[in-house]
Write a structure and sequence with these properties.
The protein is of the alpha+beta class. It has one domain (2-116). Helices cover 50% and strands 13% of the residues. The chain has six helices and two strands. A two-stranded antiparallel sheet has the order 1-2. The longest helix has 16 residues, at 7-22. The chain is globular, with a radius of gyration of 15 Å. 6% of the residues are buried.
Length: 117
């Protein structure tokens, strides 16, 4: 979190990350998504992050990309619905989900977050 507490750094980080996807050939999108996930996790001091994709029938979310720091036990399942039905159902229905740790981060980084909204 300390890396992104400055509002300008926070905005620059997201701009650079987004711009990086504009020049990626279609064949390398998966690789860039993994690289992007690592950059997000490292710059926000997150020990574990996953990026999932909704199933074609929009009834589940499956993990596609994962990042974990050394010593962090990753979630071993692929189906979010099986592991966290409440979370999966809310996300699939378009409802917001904010964890308590996320609220703490938002409070600590309020100037940076407000500048981004």
């Amino acid at each position: 979190m300390a890396k992104l507490q400055n509002p300008l750094k926070f905005q620059s980080f997201w701009a650079e990350l987004s711009a990086g996807f504009l020049k990626v050939p279609f064949d390398n999108v998966d690789q860039q998504l993994q690289v992007g996930l690592v950059h997000i996790a490292e710059n926000m001091d997150i020990d574990y992050a996953r990026l999932g994709v909704a199933a074609e029938d929009n009834k589940d979310i499956y993990a596609s990309f994962t990042y974990a720091t050394a010593g962090t036990k990753p979630w071993e399942g692929s189906s979010l619905l099986a592991a966290g039905p409440y979370l999966a159902t809310r996300l699939l229905s378009g409802q917001p989900v904010i964890s308590m740790s996320c609220l703490t981060w938002l409070q600590l980084n309020k100037p940076a977050w407000n500048a981004w909204i």
